[in-house]
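Lab notebook page, bench 4
Experiment: in silico fold of construct C2
Operator: M.H.
Input chain length: 847 residues
Purpose: comparison with the prior construct
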Amino acid sequence: MVQGDRDNGAVEAPAQKRPWHARRSAAALVLVLALAQGGESWLAYRNSIEETEAQLAERTLSSARQVEASLRSVESVLHDTAVTFGPGRPAVGNAVVERFRGRIRAMPELVDLIVVGSDGRIVAPNLTDGPAPGTDVGDRDYFRIQRDAFPREALHIGTPVISRVVGRPLLPASLPFADPLGGFGGVVAAGTNPEHFDQIMESITHATGASAALMRLDGTVLSRYPDPREHRGKRSVVDLPGVLRPGQLTFLRLDEGFDGAARFVGLRLVGSYPLVVSSTVLVHDALAEWRSRTWMAASIFGLLAAVVSMLAHIADRREMARMGLLGRLIAHRIRLEEEVADRTRHLEAARAEAQRHGKRLDLVLKGANDGWWDWDLGTDEVYCSPRFWSMLGFSPEAREANAAILKEYIHPDDVVRVEGAINQALTGAQQGFETEYRLRHRDGHYLPVLSRAYVLRDEFGRAVRVSGSNMDLTERRHAEEAVHSSEEKLRALFDMAPVGIARNTMDGRFQEANGAFLRIVGYDIERLNTLSYWDLTPASYADEEARQLASLNSVGAYGPYEKEYIHSSGRRVPVRLQGVLIEDSNGERYIWSIVEDVSERRAAEQALVEKSQELARSNDDLEQFAYVASHDLREPLRMVNSYVSLLERRYADKLDAEGREFIAFARDGAIRLDRLVLDLLDYSRVKRQGGDLVPVAADEAMTSALDTLHEVASGVGAEVVVEGPLPQVMAAPIQLQRLFQNLIGNALKYRAADRPPRITVTVAREPDGMWRFTVADNGIGIEPHYFERIFGIFQRLHTRDQYEGTGIGLALCRSIVEHHGGRLWVESEPGAGSRFHFTLKGADAAA
């Protein structure tokens, strides 16, 4: 029964139990959608984390390889410098020094380079504009650490220091070397340029707020970008040895880094060096896109929940209307009028709220470079956001459209596929669809887009609305094309490489190889892929293979080393290999190897050995022939001289002046030839009869030589000064006396005409332990371009009328010195005298 009061317009109906079926269903639907949205948001969050990790892995790998290449170049220069200029090494010429300086100047990694002796002092030569020879750097860490760790020989990277010479920060790198007796000989140290490594860090830092750094294992920062000067020398808050994984990326989240901001951090070891590169991004920036999409999805979800709730409310109201009697119908009608007015107010508010949300959503999508659209299936009206139209080159104002109009913008080849995806989503049970197609730009070209859409359905499961967004794929396509082009170039380089390149699984199976490798082993690629490197390796290399695999597993690389491959014909091919361990994005590990066929090099080395042996035999035969020939020549010379003397005594009174002159010429020629034969005998005896080298007092040898030359020296008024005492050396006594005698006699012979000869003999200890003797005179001197010629056998710079001699003396001296393991050279200026230097091993060093 209905009771009414027409005066106040109120209508009251009997109370009845209200059904809430639609609202319960709506609540369940909203809950399911909330769970689905939450799950999708979590997956999107994980994808953002994984994408960040992949970016950091790529950046750290790139920077680690650049840093490793620079350090290998520095280590190579240090090693070559130690071999060439370290104490105890033979002296080198200016050309070698200049070549090293040019090599150092060409390296942006290096600022200065020094060679430090075992006493901590810099030794010559000065290869850069660094500290002067003799400077004491024994207090520097790079010297003390290498000295204390010897005989371990490894490149040490020190903490940043301020150079005492150039006053700028440097990163010290040092390498030790041994002296001739195997003890600690010193250190070759380089001041590396931290700005070079700053540039490498900068090259992998692309985003605002991102950073990259190069650190030692103890956390000391060597290089960082940005703000390298502010952070260089600081310590990292991360316990690097406790978190690093060899050959892999270490991915961390730090809630508070150097600058106090939360960051994602990627860490990677630099090859086999005790260094780490890091690349970081702000957590806020890495998750920006995820937050934007989550906010957009939450907005859409809230709008859908409101619509579903309203529809459920309407459905419940209708159900109640069917259950009421006539009175209830009348009361319901009155209430319906009130509710219509109320609903109108709510719809207006909802429309205003939807517009506000739409503007916010458009801003979010604009920031994401996406345009969104909404298609009302009942009216066929389509709303497209300003960004949707600006992507296609139109003014950014929103405009009305419908499905037929938008269809005209789709590329003709894509229409059928797009319609199929839409129809399948509308008629099926899918919640939405995702597809790629092309839209026509205002200027006529087509724009690749990725369209994602959500289908809204009524309580009967019918599609009533479709909302979605379009993402511009132009930049992604350009990136994909660039990657494809890069892959093609790499493939071409791989195929055309002159050395063999192959990829193997960890158990040795071949998976890929270039043409050069196939030519080395004699197989085609199909047959090779059925084999492993164990099938190509002789069993005798099993131990060496085990060592190389151990190196691969520990440091991620092996080699270089040499072994043999078994060719398909059965013959063995000598090869030189080296390789690295690579892990792909799926976690699969592979071995990439570079293989060089060294058959020609081995053959050349063998030919060189054979030629050397043949040359040694020829030299021995030649020396024996010279000795025998010289010895046998003296007998007929003595006979000639004897008969000439006999002729002179018997027939002197019967010969005229011209005849006696002829006899004098004959005797003089025989005497000179005999002297030449004697010199040849001496020259051949140096190596054949040199005898064992024993400790000899150089003072005694010098005294004997001066006694022999006393008459000649006195006759020309010469002054010979020996600044002694002279040391004991390892020598053959007779040959050492002959060496002093020849050099001093040479100074007496080539004296200046305007002054009496003055000859000085001095001695000094070389850094390598050898004794350097110097015989200096004030004679006529020698032109520089004759410095090497004078040591050749039978080489004379003057006629026999000017200075007598056979041209063998200096050749004999060099032969004696080289037989003793030393070196003989000259310094001279025409008219200013000459200085002959030679080195001999000390008796104390030999002991």
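Observations: Residues 21-85 form the longest helix (65 residues). The first strand starts at residue 3 and ends at 5.
Next step: discuss at group meeting.
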